[in-house]
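About this split. The held-out portion is used to measure sequence recovery: a designer receives only the structure tokens and must propose an amino acid at every position. Recovery is the fraction of positions where the proposal matches the reference. Here is one held-out target exactly as it appears in the evaluation file.
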């Protein structure tokens, strides 16, 4: 099979298209012929070697996939050859990834394609959609009528958080960096959008929460401002962190505990498989019903996986502002 391979961690140019042996499914595993993959910031970090997570040597990056079951191993009960499926959790914790013509994974990380939903959209919704669902409903415990803030309303996770907040019946506040992105956030359901390039976030947020503070703050950026977060939340409010591996910010302990706030940090791949499966089911259903939309910002063929990685890195770590939505890779 063809695979986008990294033999030495480093820049995106280290990705090479190579011929690999097709993996064979073992106990409880399925072999999927990949049609679509999608990129996430963690794929960039693992390719670059900037986070301490084991990777095979050489390894295939990529967490998300959609495709067709080619074969199943002993003990598989949920799938059969020919089933159209999607999933995530690949390319992590020593597993090979999805920028390849085939991926072999345990059936617990595989979900049936929701009828009527394009597979490219499911691949683009995998890690980010499941992460957003867990952040909003498991960690954030968001309820109807509450007030939610999320940074980066057009980002991979942020765009899903905005929409899920709307689905939950909450009032959503977010940030964006251009008039076009502000309009996009409002179309997805945000009630208020702060332009982080032209407006002072702390001042604008202080105005918005003066009469009604926030119930949930979901932080997608790498450097959280805990003073701003704590001052913006109502007593009993929840803060959820899903980024910032190297961040070491100042933390306002006194105001935090006096308000009775909670702080939760989580990574999607640490969540139980059954919770991820529930989140994936609802993401698929909401996509089919038109309640949830995913924007694909750039599409690359497998042969240009290195360019896809470079583009994502430019717009996440580099903050170039040229990307709205997901970067996907057409594999076959």
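Reference sequence for scoring:
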């Amino acid at each position: 099979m063809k695979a986008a391979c990294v033999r030495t961690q480093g820049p995106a140019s280290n990705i090479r298209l190579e011929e690999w042996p097709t993996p064979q499914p073992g106990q409880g595993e399925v072999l999927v012929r990949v049609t679509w993959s999608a990129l996430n910031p963690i794929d960039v970090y693992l390719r670059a070697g900037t986070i301490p997570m084991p990777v095979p040597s050489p390894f295939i990056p990529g967490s998300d996939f959609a495709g067709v079951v080619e074969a199943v191993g002993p003990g598989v009960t949920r799938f059969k050859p020919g089933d159209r499926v999607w999933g995530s959790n690949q390319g992590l914790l020593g597993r090979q990834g999805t920028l390849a013509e085939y991926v072999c994974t345990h059936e617990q990380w595989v979900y049936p394609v929701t009828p009527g939903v394009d597979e490219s959209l499911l691949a683009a919704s995998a890690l980010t959609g499941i992460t957003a669902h867990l952040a909003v409903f498991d960690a954030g415990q968001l309820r109807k009528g509450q007030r939610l803030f999320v940074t980066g309303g057009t980002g991979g996770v942020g765009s899903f958080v905005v929409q899920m907040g709307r689905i939950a019946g909450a009032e959503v506040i977010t940030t964006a960096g251009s008039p076009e992105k502000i309009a996009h956030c409002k179309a997805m359901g945000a009630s208020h959008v702060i332009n982080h390039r032209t407006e002072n976030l702390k001042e604008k947020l202080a105005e918005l929460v003066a009469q009604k503070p926030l119930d949930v703050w979901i932080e997608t950026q790498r450097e959280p401002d805990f003073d701003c977060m704590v001052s913006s939340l109502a007593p009993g409010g929840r803060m959820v962190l899903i980024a910032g591996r190297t961040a070491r910010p100042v933390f306002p302990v006194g105001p935090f505990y006096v308000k009775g706030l909670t702080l939760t940090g989580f990574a999607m791949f640490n969540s139980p498989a059954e919770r991820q499966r529930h989140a994936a089911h609802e993401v698929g259903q909401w996509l089919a019903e038109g309640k949830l939309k995913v924007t694909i910002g750039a599409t690359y063929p497998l042969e240009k996986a290195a360019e896809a990685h470079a583009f994502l890195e430019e717009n996440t770590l580099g903050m170039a502002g040229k990307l709205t939505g997901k970067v996907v890779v057409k594999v076959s």
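Annotator remark: Residues 178 and 194 are 10 Å apart (CA to CA).
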